[in-house]
Amino acid sequence: MLVRLMYASRASASIDQEELQSLLRQCKSANPRQGVTGVLCFSSGIFMQVLEGGRMAVNQLYNKIVSDPRHTDVVLLDYAEIRERRFAGWSMGQVNLQRLNPAILLKYSETATLDPYAVSGQASMALFEELVATASIMGERG
């Protein structure tokens, strides 16, 4: 059974671009072995991520994230059984914030800032769907 999980968290310490790329490399290496795909967005110390895959693999990965000391204030935004993956092309894609049109953020929230704590899980998922549709995701596919 496939599931899609979306969560948000705050970085417990400052994360620079090099650390973020290292984290993405780890995901891209480990996730395919577990059958997990997804997309990550990181902005102003906030992670927002969608994970897709088998229920057990996604749940185990989420529990690992919750207990990871690099994350604080972990909040489950959405969890659903799905028939097919929406982010199947990415072992772990990353939102390209340089290509992100502020109007897309304003469409789903009060300000043009990424803040999943201030919007519903449905709005956050709709934002990710639009990011895929507008090719604002970067990283190697597969």
What does this protein look like?
- Residues 2-93 form the BLUF domain.
- It comes from Aquincola tertiaricarbonis.
- This is BLUF domain-containing protein.
- There is one protein chain.
- With 142 residues, this protein is α+β, with helices and mostly antiparallel strands.
- The protein has a single domain, classed as Alpha-Beta Plaits.
- It is built from four helices and six strands, in the order βαββαββααβ.
- The chain has helices at 17-34, 55-67, 102-108, 121-133; strands spanning 2-11, 37-43, 46-54, 71-82, 93-95, 137-138.
- It has a six-stranded mixed beta sheet, sandwiched between helices.
- A hairpin with a 2-residue loop joins β2 and β3.
- α3 runs antiparallel to α4 (121-133).
- It is globular, with a radius of gyration of 14 Å.
- The model has no long low-confidence stretch (mean pLDDT 84).
What's the SSE blueprint?
Elements: E1 2-11, H1 17-34, E2 37-43, E3 46-54, H2 55-67, E4 71-82, E5 93-95, H3 102-108, H4 121-133, E6 137-138
Parallel strand pairs: 2-5
Antiparallel strand pairs: 1-3, 1-4, 2-3, 5-6
Any descriptors?
142 residues; alpha+beta; Alpha-Beta Plaits; 6-stranded mixed sheet; 4 helices
The strand count comes to 6
Q: Cα-atom Rg, whole angstroms?
A: 14 Å
Q: How are the strands of the biggest sheet laid out side by side? A: 4-1-3-2-5-6
Broad shape: globular
CATH fold-level name: Alpha-Beta Plaits
